[in-house]
Amino acid sequence: MFQDPLFLVVLAAVLLVALILARGIGTFGKGGVENAKRANKLMRYRIYAQFVAVALILLFVFIRRSGA
Fold first, then answer.
1. Any idea what the Cα angle at residue 23 is, between residues 22 and 25, rounded to 5°?
2. Pair 16, 10: CB distance under 8 Å
3. Domain range list for the chain
4. 3-state helix, strand, coil in the chain (%, to 5)
5. Which pLDDT belongs to residue 68?
6. I want to staple 24 with a disulfide (CB 3.0 to 4.6 A). Which of 11, 42, 67, 68 is the partner?
7. CA distance 42 to 31
């Protein structure tokens, strides 16, 4: 499975989402107005990255089920 390039792209996208989430939560925990703005921006980026990750997962499943 680790030989499949699409799987590696999906794995990288999921790890990116987790990294952005962890960084955003850490920034929320620091407090302050400036950190709140930064955390909100990170959470927006997480939503975009999560959309891409879910789309890639669906593409991966679709391609594997079709036998390609």
1. 65
2. no
3. 5-65
4. 85, 0, 15
5. 61
6. 42
7. 15
